[in-house]
Specification:
The chain is of the alpha/beta class. The chain is built from eight helices and ten strands. The strands form three sheets. A five-stranded mixed β-sheet has the order 1-10-9-2-8, with helices on one face. One of its GO terms (molecular function) is rRNA binding.
Length: 227
């Protein structure tokens, strides 16, 4: 187990001893006190879900636009051709292509945060699953990254739309802003994500869908919160 720094141990002393979750805004106020690094930390929300990730029909995947963005420049790659390619470029896509883009990715180029595609491009995108899948970058209709309205998708992701999926332990973790955001901004973003996440409960999942929620910053302890 990694040994924590003196700075981290000092922050741990501020974490309430009670295992009960604290109100969201109280948790965010405390989290902002953890701003003791030389860079602006990213705020992340992690939700433990009541699903069996071994069952394909219980896996959770989606995307949601956060009202205040995530405070970073999102690099968007788009698989499109012809008029759709032009629309993607006009909307602000960083990389646009078809076979040529696929070849670059096969060669190791991964200079993007989100990959989008029009439906007619899936024959080209499909073989990239082994490369993009493990990184959570494989375009999918379920997550809104395969779409006929490619211009709208580019604008949404550039503005702070986030894509997410559960990991093999049934957790979902997403960035929801920066530690220099105001508390109400972070709270709005978190509630937008949680509201959307609740709407994705699989019909076969039994019991409580959201078991626990934790907020943290890049180099901070986690805080359990009630959302």
């Amino acid at each position: 187990m990694a040994k924590h720094s003196k700075r981290y141990r000092a922050l741990l002393e501020k974490v309430p001893a009670s295992r009960e979750p604290m109100p969201l805004e109280d948790g965010l106020k405390l989290l902002k006190e953890f701003d003791t690094t030389k860079f602006v930390q990213t705020v992340e929300v992690s939700a433990k879900l009541g699903i069996d990730p071994r069952q394909s029909d219980q896996n959770v995947r989606g995307s949601v636009a956060l009202p205040h963005g995530i405070g970073k420049t999102v690099r968007v790659a788009v698989f499109a051709q012809g008029e759709n390619a032009e629309k993607a470029r006009a909307a602000g896509a960083d990389l646009v292509g078809s076979d040529d883009l696929a070849s670059q990715i096969k060669g190791g180029m991964m200079d993007f945060d989100v990959a989008l595609a029009t439906p007619d491009m899936m024959g080209i995108v499909g073989p990239l699953g082994r490369v993009l899948g493990p990184r959570g970058l494989m375009p999918s209709p379920r997550s809104g990254t395969v779409t006929t309205d490619i211009a709208a998708a580019v604008r949404e992701f550039k503005a702070g739309k986030i894509e997410f999926r559960n990991d093999k332990t049934g957790n979902v973790a997403v960035p929801v802003g920066k530690l220099n955001f105001e508390v109400p901004q972070l709270a709005d973003n978190i509630q937008a994500f949680m509201n959307h996440l609740r709407s994705l409960k699989p019909s076969t999942a039994k019991g409580a869908f959201i078991r626990s929620v934790t907020i943290s910053a890049t180099m901070s302890p986690g805080l359990r919160v009630d959302v």
